[in-house]
């Protein structure tokens, strides 16, 4: 199962970092649990792809897979600055992502990507 979970995680990373929303929807289970500290009431997919499009680069710094769970830490680069994003995924036996939890560096987002914070509380 670990190899399949790693493959799903790689496909997820490729989809959101390249703005392929149809791939994101294919990877997500129906009614997934989504938690984020960046606009938790907003459109998750739109924020996800807008975030990636606003950056110069996103690379995986660290990936840990244990059973059906994946922990990812990303290096996000904009101009000369690099900051981190943490993401946690749960993949069901059919290969669909049932949970996504994201923890953004809100200080970096506020300073470098203030448009993403519009409408958040």
What does this structure look like?
The chain has 121 residues and is of the alpha+beta class. Helix content is 34%, strand content 40%. The chain is built from four helices and five strands. The protein has helices spanning 2-17, 21-27, 44-54, 106-112; strands at 28-36, 57-66, 69-78, 81-91, 97-104. The protein has a five-stranded mixed β-sheet. Helix 1 (2-17) runs antiparallel to helix 2. The mean pLDDT is 91.
**Element pattern in H and E:** HHEHEEEEH
Tally of strands = 5
Please list the strands of the largest sheet in the order they lie side by side.
1-5-4-3-2
Terminal Cα span: 39 Å
SS summary, helix count: 4
Helix content: 25-40%
| Main sheet properties | 5 strands, mixed
Helices and strands in order:
Layout: H1 2-17, H2 21-27, E1 28-36, H3 44-54, E2 57-66, E3 69-78, E4 81-91, E5 97-104, H4 106-112
Parallel strand pairs: 1-5
Antiparallel strand pairs: 2-3, 3-4, 4-5
Helix pairs in contact: 1-2
């Amino acid at each position: 199962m670990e190899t399949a979970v790693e493959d799903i995680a790689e496909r997820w990373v490729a989809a959101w970092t390249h703005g392929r929303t149809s791939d994101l929807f294919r990877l997500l289970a129906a009614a997934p649990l989504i938690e984020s500290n960046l606009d938790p009431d907003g459109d998750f997919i739109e924020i996800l792809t807008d975030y990636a499009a606003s950056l110069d680069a996103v690379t995986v710094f660290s990936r840990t897979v244990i059973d059906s769970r994946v922990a990812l830490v990303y290096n996000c680069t904009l101009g000369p600055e690099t900051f981190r994003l943490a993401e946690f995924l749960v993949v069901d036996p059919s290969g669909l992502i049932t949970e996504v939890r994201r923890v953004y560096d809100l200080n970096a987002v506020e300073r470098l990507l203030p448009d993403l914070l519009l409408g958040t509380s």
